[in-house]
Specification:
Length: about 150
């Protein structure tokens, strides 16, 4: 089973396990991310949720997203842009990150999954996971450069 946020049951189980109340606002934030593979920022999630809850604050959405990370409902995606980006795909995977537009693309690679953590790191730190991030220029940005005559 793909561990991407799939069901309300997964969400409610995680919340209950970590004594996090299940409110209509939290549920709406969860639903806004449920099938979103674009690695949205808090601002994007806020704009989606605000259509249902016009009085919700950006701070509430941001704190809720960070709480979801704490309880294992989301992960934070590595991004070279200023905003934190959230990843609903909890399955082992890696990222391509466009340095021009900030797009983050998921990919799988068995060789990257099997990378060994050096003993100098394992001995000093508690490793919780590993993910490879490849900086790139995505196909859209690359096409824009070609059309514009720039490299």
């Amino acid at each position: 089973m793909k561990k991407q946020i799939k069901s309300l049951e997964f969400f409610t189980t995680r919340c209950r396990k970590h004594s996090l109340r299940i409110t209509p606002q939290r549920t709406a934030i969860y639903k806004a991310l449920k099938d979103d593979c674009s690695h949205p920022s808090a601002d994007i999630v806020y704009k989606k949720v605000k259509t249902t809850f016009p009085n919700i604050s950006f701070d509430t959405v941001n704190r809720t997203l960070l709480s979801f990370v704490d309880i294992g409902v989301l992960k934070i995606a590595e991004s070279y842009h200023r905003q934190k980006r959230f990843d609903s795909n909890l399955e082992s995977h890696h990222h391509l990150s466009c340095i021009k537009c900030g797009k983050i693309i998921d990919f799988k690679n068995k060789d990257f999954d099997e990378l060994k953590i050096p003993n100098t790191i394992k001995d000093k730190y508690k490793v919780l996971g590993k993910r490879v991030v490849i900086e790139c220029i995505c196909d859209k940005c690359s096409s824009k450069n070609k059309r514009g005559g720039r490299r």
